[in-house]
Design a protein that fits this description.
The complex is a heterodimer of chains A (462) and B (1093). Chain A has 462 residues and is mainly alpha-helical. Chain A is built from 18 helices and six strands. The chains are: A mainly alpha (462), B mainly beta (1093).
Chain lengths: 462, 1093
C-alpha cells in the first residue's frame, strides 16, 4: 500500500504542477486582438472625424429640415413621409446615435482629450471647433442634449441631458478656448497638416472659422431676451472668415468610397426632388444659381415654375456631384449674419446692412461659380432705404441651399414665409426633432419627455 | 480509455482461457459430446479470438483461441450453443447432431452493445447512464457513402437536425442538437475524434456569405471508412465534462483500431464505390415567352434583362437585315443566336422557322460522378496492434468543372510497453479541396445567370460540350478585351459556362489530426491516462475573376491563406473500487488544457493588367488584411459514479474552467440518476418487460464568450448613414481610424445552459421492442449580445450577457423487430424529434436582433418567437389579418393589394418535428434498408422565385396577364392615414408585367409572398447489400465479399417550389432558411463493394 500511496502522491504533485502553470497558460494577452490597434495617433483620427461629421451634416442629419424648408421634396418611401411631417423617434435615431454621438462626436472628443494629454493644442483646437459645431447642430435640432456626462463609454452609459442654454455656454467656451488657448499656444507636439482634410492644418483659417461659428451661435439667440445677440455677432465677425476661399467645408472625393452623401443618396436611392417653393423662388427672380441647383436637363430644359407640391426637377449634378463639398460655415453666411445684425441691432445701420447684403449675394454667386453682373446689378442692389430682414433672410435661404442654417434662420425670423404642406400629418411645420428611440429606451431616466413634440420649440425659439 | 478497456479484455481473455481449460478438464469426466468450430466476423471475415462459447443452460463454456477456433465438450442435455462477444450480436445455434459448428458473428447495431462512448472518450455501460446518448455504427456511416460525415447523421439520431447546404461538390452541412442555444455565437456541436476536439468551422474569405462559393465545413475531412462509431451526446449531463464547450452537444467519433490477429496475419479490407449524382429538383421556368419588355422582343444586344417579350408561338426566326447594334463586327449575320433574329410570324423577313425554347437548365447540369476507394490494413499481437488506412474520394459535381477531392492517410497503433504501461497514438493526414463555383447573390453566380436567362437565348450557343467550348461563353476577343457572351450582351450577368470557366475558386487544405496517449495502470483499480491531441491545417484558397466577369469587370484575384492550430491535453486519473459488495464506485479526476489559434492573411488584387494571367503582381490595386483569433482554456474536472447492485446508478460531475475570454473561472456541475427497475427482484424475471430504466439528470453547462471582445479597439474608418454605402478610408490618400462603436466587455460571463432531462428506456419481449423516450428542458441564460446603449455615451452597443432562450423537447426512439427468424429479420427504427425553441428575452429595449440575411428578408431572433424568424415586408392587413386590396381609383395601386413598409415576422425556419423511419430487412445474406425522413414545419425564403417572377422567367409568369380576385378585403388609407376597409374583395387584380415587376415580384413586392413551407417527406437513403456466401468466398481466396447499392434522395415530396428545401445559402451558419439562387441538391446512386482479405 505504501508504494501505491507514493504513486498517488506523485500523481497529485503532477496535478499541482499543472495547476500552477495554469496562470501562465491563461494569459490575458491572449484575448487581445492583435489585428486592431487599441490606440491610434491624432493624425489618424482627425481625417476620419472630419469626414464622418461632414457625411452626416451634409446628409442624414438635415434631410428632414431640407424637406420642411421646402428646398427639396420627397417623392417616395421614407423621405415622402418626412415631407408630410411624419418624422418619428426612429427616423433620427441613426443620425443621433451612430453618426453623431457614437460616430463623429466620440472621435472628436477623443481628439480633444488626446490633444490635451499629448501636449498637442493645435489638435485640441480643431477638436474644440468641430465639437462646438457638432453641439450647435445637435442642440438646434433637439434642444437639451448630453455633453458634460457624454462620451464616457462604460463609465456612464446614461449621461444626463444639459439644457440648451448651458450647451450654448459650452459652445462659446469651446470656441473661446480654441481661439485664445489652443491655437494661441506657441508649440504643439503634434501638428496637423494634410491629415486635416479641411484646412490642411492652417491655424489662421481655423481661428477665422472659430470666430465665424461664434458669430453664428451668437445670432441664434436673437429671440432670447438680453442675449445681446447682434452686438456679439458683429464683434466676432470682425475676426471671422473674410473670403470664399476661407470657407470651412469638407470636400468629398471622386473614388467610390469617397463620394458626397447627397450624391450617394441620389445615385443609390433617388426619392428626392426639388421642392416647388425653392424652384419658384429661383424662377421668379430668374436666379442664375437656378441651373446650379436644379437639373434642367429633365423636363422643359429650362428653369420653369414648380408643379404641385412636388417638382420632378432633380438637384443638379454640379451641386451634388461625387466631389461636392459639404459646407460647415462660409464667408457668405458671415456676410448675411453681418447684414442681419447691422439691420436688427441697435442702433440699426441699414446702409451697412444693405452693402453687406449685396456683397453676400455677389459672394454666393461667385461661390457657385456663376458670373452674371447684369443680374447682380438688378438683384444685389439693396439700399439703406429698401433693405429688409425678409430680403436678407430670403437671399440667405437661397445662398445656404440645403444647409442646416436655413431651418435655424426660419425658426428665428419666420423668413422666408412658408405655407405648411397640405398633405401634412400636422398642420404646421415642425419646429424640432423628436428624441431618438435609443435615448428613449436606453437612457430613459434622463431623456426629456415633455415639450418634445414636433411642434414644440427649443429654448432659443420661444 | 478504449485502450485500457482492451487491455482489460486481453487480461480477462487469458483468465477465461485458463478457466476454459479448467472447465474442459473437469467436464471430460461427464463428457457426452465434443463440438469444434471457428468463429469469424461476418463483416470482414476475420477470425474472432476471445469469443465466449457456452452451452445454454449449463455452466459449460470456453472461449475461442487466437485463430477463432474453439473446442467444447457439452453435456448431453445441452441443446444450444451461445456465442457472445462484445460488439457483436449474441448468436444461438441448435446443437442437434452437429459436432462442428462454425459461426459468423455480426456487428451489433450499436458500436459496442451495452457499452457507449461518453464524454472524454470514456466507455461506460449504457445501462448505467442517467442521460440519453445515441450511437451510430461505423457500418451505417460507411454505407451512407457521404463524403461529409455530418450528412450521415441526418434522420438517424433523435434530437439532431442536419441541413446540407446544397448539392455542390464539397458543400457544407449545418448540424444542431436540441435546437439553438446561442443567439450570435456557435450553435453547432463540438466534434471530438478519439477524445480530441477537432475544428468544424466554415470560414469565409471575405466575411460575406451572401455571395462567393459554397465552402466546406471542416468535419468533411474525416474519412467515413475510418469511423468505428459515433456517439451523439445531446443533453447537458452527457456533455457536462466539457464545461464551456458543452451547451451545443458533442459528436464523439471513435475511429477504428487494429485487432489482435495473431502472428503474421494482416486484416486487409478494401472498399470501393462509384456514385452518380443527378439534380433532384430545380425551380421551374416558363417556356412560352421570349426575352424582351412589354411583349416586344429585345435581343441580347439590347442588354434587356427580362423575359417580358413576345409569346414564342407568335414568332419565327429571320435572317433579315440587321440593325447596327445587332452586328457590331459587320459580319453580316446575327452573332447572338445561330438561328438568327426573332421576328413576328408575319414579318416580311421571317424565314418561317418556329421559335422553340432552349432548355438551358437541362443542358447545363451533368451527371456527377464520384469515386471512393478505401484500403485498410490492420492487425496485431498480444502486445501491439496497428491500423493503417488510405482513402481517396474524388467527386465531379453536377455542375461542370465543380470538383471536390479528398485523400486521407491514417496510421494508428497501440502497444503495451510493460504490464502496467501502454501507449497508443494515431496520425491522420488529410488533403482536401476542390474547384468551387460562384453562387448566391452574385452577378457572377451560377444559378443567378442561369435561371434569369430567357428561353430564347442559348447559353450553350449550340455546342454539345459548351463547358469546354469557349465560343459558347465568349462572344469575341477584341485585342486584350474579352467580351463575354451573355443574354444581356456583354457582361451584366455571367453566362453559366463563363462562370465555371472564368471565375475559378480553388481551395487546398492540408491537415494533420493526431493524438498520443499513455496509460499507466499501477494497480488494478487505479490508472492514469495522459492524452495529447492536435488538429492543424492550412487552407490555401485562390479565387479569380477574369476580365469581363460581371461581378468584377476589371478582373480580380483573391489569395486567402488560413492557418488553424488546435492543441488539447488531458490528464486523467481513474479510480475504480467497490465500497461494499453492493456499491461500486468509479472516480475520474482530470485536467484539461486547450488552445486554438486561427491566422488568416487575405490579399485582394483588382484591375488586372494582362488578361488570363492570375498572379497578384498583375493587379493594379492590392488590398490586404490580416486576422488572428486565438483562445486558451484550462480546467479541472471530476466524475464520481456510484453503482448500487447494478440497479441504481448515480453520477456526479464537476468542471472548474478558466478561459482567456473570461476574467474569472466558472464551475459547471451535473448530476444524473439511472434506475434500472427491472433489476428489482419482483421484475427480474418478467417475461414481457426485458429491461426497464428511468433516468433523470440536471446539468449546468455553457458556451464560451466570443474571443477578442474584452477591450475597445480602433478600426480603419468606414462610415455610413443608413441610406447609402457611405465612405471608407483610406480617403483622399489619408489613412483614418475610428473607435469601434461596440464597447468591449472585460466582465463577460459564459452563456450558461441549465439542462434538465428525464427519460425512460424500455425493452419488451426479449428486446424485440425497444422504446427510448426523453424529455428535456434547456434554459440558456446570459446569452451574449451586442446590447444597444444610449448613443450619447459615445458608443452604439456593448457586448453583454443579456438574452434568454429555452429549448424544450421530446425525443422518442422506437425499435421494433416484428420478424426474427434464422434467415429473415425485419427491423424498424423510428427516430422522432420535437424541439420547441423560444427566445424568451434579448436585452432591455431589444425585441429582435439580426442573425443574417438580405435587406428586406433577414433571419432574426425575435422575443416570443423561436430562433430564426424570417423578417421582412408584408401586405397591409386589416385587424383580422386579411390583406387589403386598394379600392381607391385615384391610386396608382388601384385593385392591387397594398404593401406595408413595416418589417414583420413572416414565419420560423425551424422544423416543428422530425421523424426518421429506418426499415431494415435481412434475408440470409441480403439486406435492404431504407430511411424515410419526414420534416414538418419551418419556412424558407424563396428569394430565387421572387427574382424570377420579376424577370419573367418563373413558371407561374406563363399565365401573365391573367386576372384573379385576391382573397382579402377592399380598402384604402384616408387623408389622415387611417385604414378604411370596405368588405370582402370583389375586384380583379391583373397579374401582368407591371404586377410582377412591381408589388407582385421579388424586387418591390412584399417579402411574405416568397416565404414558403419547407416541409418534406423524402427517401433519404436506401441501401441494398449482399454478402457473398462463405462457400463462394472461400473459393475466391477472400475472407468476405459484399456488394451494395445505396440511393440517396431518390424520392422527395415537398410543397416548396424552388430547389430541394434542404438548402442553405449560408451553409454552416446560424442564418438558415435563405434560398437566393442556391445551387440545387442531388439524388445519388452509389454502387459499392467491400472486400476483406
Amino acid at each position: 500500500m505504501k508504494k501505491i500511496n507514493i504513486k498517488i502522491l506523485t500523481g497529485f504533485i503532477v496535478i499541482v504542477a499543472i495547476t500552477s502553470s495554469c496562470k501562465k497558460w491563461i494569459d490575458d494577452d491572449y484575448n487581445v486582438n492583435q489585428t486592431k490597434p487599441q490606440d491610434v495617433t491624432l493624425n489618424l483620427i482627425l481625417p476620419s472625424a472630419e469626414a464622418s461629421l461632414a457625411y452626416c451634416v451634409g446628409g442624414d442629419l438635415g434631410y428632414a429640415t431640407n424637406l420642411w424648408m421646402q428646398q427639396m421634396s420627397g417623392s417616395a418611401r421614407q423621405v415622402l413621409a418626412y415631407d408630410r411631417y411624419v418624422f418619428t423617434s426612429s427616423d433620427d435615431d441613426n443620425a443621433w446615435s451612430f453618426a453623431m454621438y457614437g460616430g463623429a462626436m466620440e472621435n472628436i472628443y477623443k481628439i480633444i482629450e488626446k490633444g490635451k494629454a499629448q501636449n498637442s493644442p493645435y489638435y485640441t483646437g480643431i477638436g474644440e471647433v468641430l465639437m462646438a459645431y457638432s453641439l450647435g447642430s445637435m442642440t438646434d435640432l433637439w434642444g437639451s442634449i448630453p455633453y458634460k456626462q457624454a462620451f464616457q463609454g462604460d463609465k456612464n452609459l446614461t449621461p444626463a441631458f444639459d439644457s440648451q442654454q448651458s450647451i450654448y455656454v459650452t459652445i462659446d467656451s469651446l470656441l473661446n478656448d480654441a481661439i485664445n488657448v489652443q491655437f494661441a499656444a506657441s508649440t504643439s507636439l503634434y501638428t496637423p497638416s494634410t491629415d486635416d482634410l479641411i484646412y490642411s492644418g492652417s491655424r489662421p483659417k481655423w481661428i477665422k472659422a472659430a470666430y465665424a461659428f461664434r458669430a453664428r451661435y451668437a445670432i441664434h439667440l436673437s429671440k432670447v431676451p438680453g442675449s445681446n445677440a447682434y452686438a456679439n455677432a458683429l464683434s466676432y465677425l470682425s475676426s471671422a472668415i473674410s473670403a470664399n476661399s476661407g470657407d470651412c467645408e469638407f470636400t468629398f472625393g471622386a473614388n467610390q468610397n469617397e463620394e458626397n452623401p447627397l450624391y450617394q443618396f441620389f445615385d443609390q436611392r433617388g426619392d428626392f426632388g426639388m421642392a416647388k417653393f425653392m424652384v419658384d423662388t429661383l424662377f421668379h427672380s430668374n436666379d442664375p444659381r437656378g441651373t446650379v441647383f436644379i437639373d434642367t436637363t429633365y423636363g422643359t430644359g429650362a428653369l420653369a415654375p414648380g408643379v404641385g407640391g412636388v417638382s420632378d426637377a432633380w438637384i443638379a449634378y454640379p451641386f451634388c456631384s461625387e466631389t461636392s463639398p459639404v459646407p460647415f460655415i462660409s464667408y457668405v453666411e458671415c456676410l448675411f449674419i453681418k447684414a442681419e445684425a447691422e439691420l436688427q441691432g441697435s442702433p440699426s445701420d441699414p446702409a451697412a446692412a444693405a452693402a453687406d447684403y449685396n456683397a453676400a449675394i455677389a459672394a454666393s454667386l461667385s461661390k457657385y461659380g456663376v458670373t452674371d453682373s447684369a443680374w447682380l446689378s438688378t438683384h444685389a442692389n439693396a439700399t439703406a432705404a429698401d433693405i429688409t430682414l425678409q430680403k436678407i433672410m430670403t437671399q440667405k435661404y437661397i445662398a445656404l441651399f440645403l444647409q442646416l442654417e436655413v431651418y435655424n434662420d426660419w425658426r428665428r425670423t419666420g423668413f422666408p414665409v412658408l405655407v405648411p404642406s397640405i398633405n401634412g400629418a400636422i398642420s404646421s411645420i415642425p419646429r424640432r426633432y423628436p428624441y431618438p428611440t435609443s435615448e428613449k429606451l436606453y437612457n430613459s431616466k434622463n431623456c426629456p419627455t415633455s415639450g418634445v413634440s414636433l411642434t414644440d420649440r427649443v429654448w432659443w425659439d420661444q | 480509455m478504449k485502450i485500457n478497456y482492451k487491455l482489460k479484455l486481453s487480461n480477462m481473455k487469458k483468465l477465461l482461457l485458463l478457466l476454459g481449460v479448467f472447465l474442459l478438464c473437469t467436464s471430460v469426466m461427464f463428457a457426452q459430446k465434443t463440438i469444434t468450430g471457428k468463429v469469424t466476423s461476418k463483416s470482414d471475415g476475420t477470425s474472432l479470438p476471445g469469443v465466449t462459447v457456452v452451452a445454454k443452460g449449463t455452466k459449460t463454456g470456453t472461449i475461442t483461441d487466437m485463430d477463432g477456433n474453439y473446442k467444447i465438450t457439452v453435456p448431453a442435455t445441452a441443446t444450444k450453443l451461445v456465442f457472445t462477444f462484445i460488439g457483436m450480436t449474441t448468436y444461438e445455434v441448435e446443437i442437434g447432431s452437429q459436432t462442428s459448428i462454425s459461426v459468423a458473428l455480426e456487428a451489433s447495431t450499436t458500436v459496442l452493445e451495452g457499452v457507449v462512448v461518453t464524454a472524454l472518450g470514456i466507455s461506460k455501460q449504457e445501462k448505467a447512464l442517467g442521460y440519453s446518448v445515441q450511437q451510430v455504427s461505423g457500418d451505417v456511416i460507411s454505407q451512407s457513402d457521404n463524403t461529409n460525415v455530418v450528412n450521415s447523421l441526418g434522420g438517424k439520431v433523435t434530437g439532431v437536425q442536419v441541413t446540407n447546404s446544397s448539392g455542390a461538390a464539397g458543400a457544407s452541412s449545418y448540424i444542431t442538437i436540441r435546437g439553438a442555444h446561442s443567439v450570435l455565437g456557435e450553435n453547432q456541436p463540438l466534434f471530438i475524434v478519439d477524445g480530441v476536439p477537432i475544428d468544424n468551422s466554415q470560414s469565409s474569405s471575405t466575411g460575406s456569405l451572401v455571395d462567393g462559393v459554397a465552402l466546406s465545413n471542416r468535419a468533411i475531412d474525416i474519412n467515413p471508412d475510418d469511423i468505428a462509431g459515433i456517439s451523439v451526446l445531446k443533453g447537458g449531463a452527457a456533455t457536462a465534462l466539457y464545461g464551456l464547450r458543452a451547451a451545443n452537444g458533442v459528436v464523439m467519433i471513435s475511429t477504428k483500431k487494429g485487432k489482435t490477429t495473431g502472428q503474421n496475419k494482416i486484416n486487409v479490407t478494401f472498399n470501393s464505390s462509384v456514385s452518380f449524382d443527378k439534380v433532384n429538383k430545380l425551380p421551374e421556368v416558363q417556356t412560352k415567352f421570349g426575352q424582351g419588355d412589354g411583349g416586344q422582343w429585345l435581343g441580347p444586344e439590347t442588354h434587356c434583362s427580362t423575359s417580358w417579350g413576345p409569346k414564342l408561338d407568335t414568332c419565327t426566326y429571320s435572317n433579315g437585315p440587321l440593325a447596327a447594334n445587332q452586328d457590331p463586327y459587320n459580319f453580316g449575320y446575327y452573332d447572338w443566336d445561330k438561328n438568327g433574329l426573332i421576328v413576328g410570324k408575319n414579318d416580311p423577313t421571317s424565314n418561317g422557322k418556329a421559335v422553340t425554347p432552349y432548355d438551358n437548365l437541362k443542358n447545363f447540369f451533368q451527371t456527377g460522378v464520384s469515386y471512393n476507394n478505401d484500403l485498410s490494413l490492420s492487425g496485431g499481437n498480444e502486445a501491439s496492434t496497428y491500423y493503417f488506412s488510405m482513402s481517396n474520394s474524388s467527386s465531379k459535381g453536377i455542375i461542370p468543372l465543380n470538383t471536390f477531392d479528398k485523400t486521407t492517410v491514417k496510421i494508428a497503433g497501440d502497444t503495451k510497453l510493460s504490464k502496467k504501461i501502454s501507449t497508443s497514438g494515431s496520425v491522420n493526414y488529410i488533403n482536401s479541396g476542390g474547384y468551387r463555383i460562384q453562387q448566391g447573390s452574385n452577378m457572377s453566380g451560377l444559378m443567378l445567370g442561369l435561371l434569369r436567362t430567357p428561353v430564347t437565348f442559348d447559353d450553350a450557343n449550340g455546342y454539345s460540350d459548351p463547358a469546354n467550348t469557349p465560343e459558347a461563353y465568349i462572344f469575341s476577343k477584341d485585342g486584350y478585351i474579352t467580351h463575354p457572351r451573355t443574354y444581356r450582351g456583354f457582361g451584366k450577368y455571367d453566362n453559366p459556362y463563363w462562370t465555371v470557366n472564368e471565375n475559378p475558386y480553388r481551395d487546398d487544405v492540408n491537415r494533420i489530426i493526431g493524438n498520443f496517449s499513455v496509460v499507466y495502470n499501477p494497480i488494478e483499480w487505479l490508472n492514469f491516462t495522459y492524452r495529447l491531441g492536435n488538429d492543424w491545417y492550412t487552407d490555401k484558397r485562390k479565387g479569380d475573376f477574369a476580365i469581363g466577369s460581371a461581378a468584377y469587370p476589371t478582373g480580380q484575384i483573391i489569395l486567402d491563406n488560413q492557418y488553424n492550430m488546435d492543441i488539447n491535453s488531458d490528464f486523467i486519473c481513474n479510480i475504480s473500487r467497490n465500497i461494499t459488495n453492493d456499491i461500486k464506485s468509479n472516480l475520474t479526476l482530470g485536467q484539461n488544457m486547450y488552445q486554438t489559434k486561427f491566422h488568416q492573411t487575405y490579399v485582394q488584387g483588382d484591375q488586372l493588367a494582362l488578361p488570363d494571367f492570375y498572379n497578384i503582381s498583375n493587379a493594379l490595386t492590392v488590398q490586404s488584411k490580416e486576422f488572428i483569433d486565438q483562445k486558451r482554456t484550462a480546467a479541472f474536472y471530476g466524475d464520481l459514479g456510484l453503482d448500487y447492485k447494478s440497479m441504481v446508478f448515480l453520477d456526479v460531475t464537476g468542471r472548474e474552467e478558466w478561459t482567456t475570454t473570461l476574467s474569472k473561472p466558472f464551475f459547471f456541475p451535473s448530476a444524473s440518476l439511472g434506475f434500472v427497475f427491472t433489476e428489482l427482484p419482483s421484475l427480474v424475471k418478467n417475461e414481457v418487460l426485458s429491461f426497464g430504466k428511468i433516468r433523470a439528470s440536471y446539468a449546468n453547462v455553457a458556451n464560451d464568450a466570443p474571443t477578442l471582445q474584452s477591450l475597445n479597439y480602433y478600426s480603419s474608418a468606414a462610415f455610413l448613414d443608413g441610406w447609402t454605402s457611405g465612405i471608407s478610408f483610406p480617403f483622399e490618400g489619408q489613412t483614418g481610424y475610428m473607435i469601434d462603436p461596440t464597447l468591449g466587455n472585460a466582465g463577460l460571463k459564459p452563456e450558461e445552459m441549465r439542462s434538465l432531462e428525464f427519460g425512460t428506456e424500455l425493452k419488451f419481449f426479449k428486446n424485440r421492442v425497444g422504446i427510448d423516450f426523453t424529455y428535456y428542458n434547456n434554459k440558456n441564460e446570459n446569452v451574449i449580445l451586442d446590447v444597444p446603449v444610449a448613443g450619447s455615451s459615445g458608443y452604439a452597443a456593448k457586448l453583454m450577457n443579456a438574452a434568454t432562450m429555452v429549448n424544450k423537447g421530446i425525443e422518442a426512439m422506437l425499435d421494433v423487430t416484428p420478424v426474427k427468424s434464422k434467415d429473415f429479420e425485419w427491423n424498424m427504427l423510428f427516430n422522432f424529434t420535437k424541439n420547441n425553441n423560444m427566445v424568451v428575452a434579448l436585452a432591455p429595449g431589444v425585441d429582435n436582433v439580426y442573425i443574417g440575411g438580405f435587406t428586406g428578408s433577414e433571419i432574426r431572433a425575435v422575443v416570443g418567437q423561436p430562433y430564426g424568424e424570417i423578417y421582412g415586408t408584408d401586405w397591409v392587413r386589416d385587424g383580422s389579418g386579411n390583406i387589403v386590396i386598394n379600392d381607391d381609383p385615384s391610386s396608382s395601386s388601384y385593385r392591387q393589394p397594398m404593401m406595408s413598409e413595416t418589417e414583420v415576422s413572416l414565419g420560423n425556419t425551424q422544423a416543428k418535428w422530425l421523424l426518421g423511419i429506418t426499415n431494415t430487412l435481412k434475408y440470409k445474406n441480403v439486406a435492404l434498408s431504407f430511411l424515410v425522413d419526414i420534416k414538418v414545419g419551418g419556412v424558407m425564403w424563396n428569394g430565387t422565385k421572387g427574382a424570377l417572377d420579376y424577370f419573367g422567367t418563373a413558371k407561374n409568369t406563363e399565365t401573365r396577364g391573367d386576372s384573379i380576385i385576391m382573397t382579402g378585403v377592399q380598402g384604402h388609407y384616408d387623408a389622415h392615414g387611417n385604414l378604411i376597409t370596405n368588405g370582402t374583395n370583389t375586384m380583379y387584380t391583373i397579374r401582368d408585367e407591371n404586377w410582377y415587376t412591381g408589388v407582385g415580384g421579388g424586387f418591390g413586392g412584399p417579402t411574405s409572398q416568397f416565404v414558403e413551407k419547407a416541409n418534406w417527406v423524402r427517401l433519404r437513403q436506401l441501401t441494398l447489400s449482399y454478402s457473398l456466401g462463405d462457400n463462394i468466398v472461400k473459393k475466391t481466396g477472400f475472407k468476405a465479399i459484399s456488394v451494395y447499392f445505396t440511393g440517396k434522395n431518390l424520392w422527395l415530396k415537398t410543397p416548396y417550389t424552388g430547389v430541394d428545401p434542404e438548402t442553405s445559402l449560408f451553409g454552416s451558419h446560424n442564418a438558415q432558411g435563405i434560398d437566393y439562387f442556391n445551387m440545387p441538391s442531388t439524388k445519388t446512386f452509389t454502387f459499392g463493394i467491400k472486400l476483406a482479405i
